[in-house]
Model the fold of this input.
Amino acid sequence: MIIRAIIAAVSLFIANAVIAASPVISKIQDQRTEQNTLYIYQPKLEAGELVHWTKTFGPDSVKVNPIKGSISWNVPADLPSESFHLGVKASNAEGSDEQTWIVTVGDGQVLYVGPDEVIKTLKEGMSQISSGDTLVMRNGYWDHANNTNTIPGNAKKAQTLPGGNASAFTTLMAEDPGQVTLDGKDEVILLSLFGSTKHPDYALNNNDWTGKTDYIAIKGLVLINSKTEALRVNYSQYVKLINIGVGPSGQFSTSYSNLYIYRSQNVLIEGLYAWGHGRYKVAFQQSSNSVVRRSVARIDNYLGGKPIGGYISYCSKNIMFQNNILVDSDHPKYWNNHNEIINAFGVPATNCYDYPEFNEFKRNLALNVHMGLMNTDARTNANPSLWEDLVGWDLKPARHNGGTGAVTPILSSVGATVTNRMTLGEVNIDTEDEGDYFLYSRNLDALVKNSILYRVGWDGGETVNQGDLVRQTYAEFYFEDNNLFDFKGGMNDSGGCCVIEKHNVNIDPEFKYLTMLPRDSLLRSAASDGSQMGAELMTMRGKSGTFYGQPGFDDETNIPMWPFPGQDVAHQQFSAFSFTGTDRDGGTAGIRGDRGFAVDNQTLTNYVWGYLGNVVPPFNLTATAGNSQVKLMWDVSAPLEQSELASYRIYQFIEGVKELKEEVAAGTLSYDVTGLTNDLSFEFAVTAVDVDGNESDYAYPVSSTPVERPKPLPPILYIE
Amino acid sequence: MECSVKVLTIVCILLLSGCFDERSSATSLKQRADTQEITLNWKRPTQFQDDSILESSDIAAYILYAGTSKDNLSESVRVEGGDKNSYVFNLSAGVYYFAIAAESIYGDESMISNIVHKELK
Done:
């Protein structure tokens, strides 16, 4: 043991001694591949040693070797032709570097537009490409006025992209995700897909326009200061909006959302980041069969008179929201004139008959948001809105009518609702308002089960009696298998009809992180059927790139949700925002964009995991097999966290129990576990320890099987 | 029931439903009324287990496995050469299951591939 410790110490010394430089990755040119191929690429380093390679962009099936950086992607045989962003990050203790590049699947033409290209404007580029081609905008700031590159709005005569088809998407993309900013200067409407595909249940009201905008993919653009919505999709289907940023929208028209889908079907929104002025961050209206996945949004200011909210499905059906975040929406006085509050996640309706139905929200988070968690108006008990693994933390419900009306409850079940595994923590409502309540059911049934309500009635330092938990009018409210902890109010007001309580418990959840229950928590099996109470936000639900209903679109992927993908580009944009103006009370403090998760040296992941003040674990832990050994590597902690860290602890699981293997100084980001038996699988985890000796939990354990020499992967066999 | 692939297999085919011949003997077997050809094709692996890049020159041979049930791929054929990508069996009526593995020039055999099957009538 002593000898091994000395060897470890020596190798550690050597490892530290040879890290000479921060990594620099050689520029990676755009590439092409085809379906039913294994795409492989080996990036090269110009500087830096002992780097840890991780993926930053690319479909879920793209793999990056943590030590070598080699990228492999089994391109499926049935994947439509389309262009994709792939990206890798190389990091060591000295720093990191990223490269992204474009891989075009299929044989469509790829055309570049920009100041140094033959074709200089987006408008001209759009006229030059054909169905199934790719148009790439070079990185930089695109001023619509100087470059005449606007696509003038949603008028049917707009210059638009040619639609693709089921086997070949037309792609419009940034050279690198997040590095193309298109500025509408509040003068023009930015991107608008104005198609002619009639929605089966709603009229086609487009003045006989015949252009098709189906099978289009838009990727990596940042759209700011649009006169109305930054991005609008009308009468279209099979539209992919991937890694798009939508900033301040409709600032002088006041009734627009940042991203708006109207009478369309099979829209996929993935990796969206939305901030700044706007009524809803994402809104579907009279649309169906669509997905919003892995997105982050922040409500800043809103001057208009329409309802306000976060992720909204209005009079729509079969809309699936997976792994989305609404964060730091904490300046309600700058929501000057809104009428209703639709909450962080909402399913509103106005006279749309059997719509909305089957809207589902899975693994979503609302954090530091000054409105309620959800609002639903599903029309029948048979077709409720479904909420599963939903976390609402540090919420302060808002009032209708520019802050002067009634408080909108946390869960406002105007229509039918099923809520499973919700974690609601540290919620505060205005105690001056008589008859406040947190949960509400009106005309149709509501069910809340397997959920944790923790410090509901929290005034910032303690829980106080802020009124009853539930108010209901004509329908039944089922409250079953929940953990109601540290609540000072009553269950329901006297005017109500019927709150039905069953199997509820009162157990301190001892939260350390918002993303998961403590690993030894009793609540992991506290429901009457032995299932878990409370939400988990640990892995991604739904395979990337899949439309609603396609195979894998709602599957467990086992892909870590953290570090949250695209968090760096979102941070860059959110922090750069600012607004000066007068709030509804006459205040002029304005809004700073560099708040909450967007302050300097912070990351979204570190903000969410560190919200309760506990040490945040390291992320991107990888295990790579060698001969009788496994190399563990992990990412440096967020700068804000780093300054407080003393060390990392490496654990090995032996018969399910974690045993301390080694402790390394906080500047060390890898460890070789040696002396392992080849061909057996070993499991490891890494924690962080701060200068006061507080230790984090681990985020994601990893396993690896050491081998004497790597074997070939098997061939793929076909038969005629 | 052993049936080495290095051995002439006409006898095997007469005796067993799950017995396989080399490509070289296909011509003569083709004339037999009771056997039919099954062509297997494969895509070679392009990586080792550790994701490092694998060229065809890293492969010494492919090992084809076959049998009459997917749980009992009792027969094997060794096809030399990393650049090979197909093989023809001549077989009598029945249901056959096949899989393949790659053997590196260091003598390490990969995990077994996907299993395919075909019924001959």
User: Anything to note?
Assistant: DSSP finds two helices and six strands in chain B. Residues 4 and 76 of chain B are 7 Å apart (CA to CA). Helices of chain B lie at 10-15, 26-30.
